[in-house]
Every structure is written in C-alpha cells, then in structure tokens.
Amino acid sequence: MIVSPSFFVELPRVIRVAKSITKADWLPSYSMSPLRLARNMRNVQKAMRRGFSLIELSIVVLVLAILSGIVVPLLGGLNQISTPTGTKSDKEIITETTMRSIRDAILGSETKPGAWADLGHRPQLFPTDPIQLVAENHPLVGAFDPVTKIGWRGPYLRGSIRQPDGANVFVDGWGNPLTIFVPDTNSNLVMDREDIQYARLVSAGANGKIETLPQNTKDYIPGEMDPATALSLHECGDDIVYFFFVADTRQ
C-alpha cells in the first residue's frame, strides 16, 4: 500500500489531539466520587444530545483528508495502465516506461535536460541508438557550454543490459532491443530535418519481430490520408511505436 507523505505529517497532530481528549476532565474515572461521576455523566449525555464538538469534527475531517491523500493517488494511477480493451500486461508497461525514459533522455523533461537540445538540434547528430545516451562524452561534440547552451553533458540515460554478444542495449519487456528508426523520406541518403520529423522508437512487441519498416521512403507518416506515405497500425503489426516529434494518429 502506498501511503501519502501527508499521513506522516498529520499523524503526530492526531496523536496529540487524541491524548488531550483522553485526559479531559469530563471523562469518568475510578478515582472520581459518585457525585462527581454522576455530574460528569450528565454532561456527557448533554454533549451527545448536542452533537459533535469542534475537536471531534476536526478529527473526522483530518482522518478523511488523510484517507483521500492515500486513495486518490492510487485511483489516479489506474488510468495510466488501463486501455479500452483491458489492463495492459506487465511487459507492455515495462516496455512503454522504458521507451518514455529514452524519449525523455533525447527530448528532455521538466526536471532533466535532453540530448537533442544539447546537440543544437543538428539533424546529423540525432541519436540513432539509445545506447549513445549513456556515454559521458560525445565523439563529435565538446563538453556543455553554459553560455551557448550547447554541448554534451551525458550520461542522459542509465540501465542498459549486456547482450550475449557483448553489446549493451536497452530492451523492452520481452527482452528485445529497442530501436530508433529515422526514415529517409526524400531518398537523399542524408539524415536531415525532414527525416528527423518522423523519427520513431520501436519495440518488436510480443512476437519479437520488428514489422515496422526501418529505412524507407514510403509509409512513414502516421495517419496520413495519402496511402503512398501513410503508416498504419496494420503495417506495424504488434510493434509498439513512439514518435518523437509528430502525433501518433495511425489507424
């Protein structure tokens, strides 16, 4: 069970309030005289008829607030792993989490810089292999310059896995290497801005076979009306595809 941090903040206050109530003079005690005990019992009965005291209501509200701090995050997290056809498998969740980490390492996030901006958005330097993001240095780029805001400040990513052949890779939930595809959209054999626009990160999915064409001059635009360049869900098979710069509108 996940406990909200606010629970530990408010717990001492609840304990103090509870202790103050248990030490209240109106509570019955074996050391009380019969006359005082009867008088206090009448006071308790009057308080019960009158309703809850301010302290009691405060405790109730506090407990509800603590419970909401625990339950709401749990309920909110359900939307992140559910699909119209049911709950995603653990392997799909692992795959998408790893792919988001790679995407954030390239494009950056609210808390961490991205390699793409540090590379000056130069198309020829766009990372074409996730393993490049674990390097502390870049062979073609110097160290980060705080004045120009350009330069390598890796590693941007950690957690690669060594394959039997000795190569380090990032894998999906099924153990398949994750691959970055940059299609040659204009057939000039040069990675330019037109190509980078449709760069995508691909997992082979459950069948372990990449069905999305890696390098091609057609079928690279998700949701395109022109069948000559449209990339559809059917053409990707069971591959999991993340586009870096365009919306995924495949049908």
Topology:
Layout (H helix, E strand, L loop, with lengths): L4 H18 L11 H17 L3 H25 L3 E2 L2 E2 L2 H18 L7 H4 L42 E2 L5 E2 L9 E3 L11 H4 L3 E4 L17 E2 L7 E2 L1 H4 L3 E4 L8
Parallel strand pairs: 7-8
Antiparallel strand pairs: 1-2, 3-4, 5-6, 6-9
Helix pairs in contact: 1-3
β-sheet strand percentage: 5-15%
| Counted beta strands | 9
Q: Main sheet?
A: 3 strands, antiparallel
Q: Show unreliable segments.
A: 1-5, 21-31, 70-86
Cα-atom Rg, whole angstroms?
A: 30 Å
Assembly type of the chains comes to single chain
Describe it.
With 251 residues, the chain is α+β, with helices and mostly antiparallel strands. The chain has two domains: 5-78; 91-243, no CATH class. It has seven helices and nine strands; from the N terminus they run αααββααβββαβββαβ. It has helices at residues 5-22, 34-50, 54-78, 90-107, 115-118, 193-196, 233-236; strands at 82-83, 86-87, 161-162, 168-169, 179-181, 200-203, 221-222, 230-231, 240-243. Strands 5-6-9 form a three-stranded antiparallel sheet, covered by helices on one side. β3 (161-162) and β4 form a beta hairpin. The chain starts with a helix and ends in an 8-residue tail after the last strand.
In short:
Helices cover 36% and strands 9% of the residues.
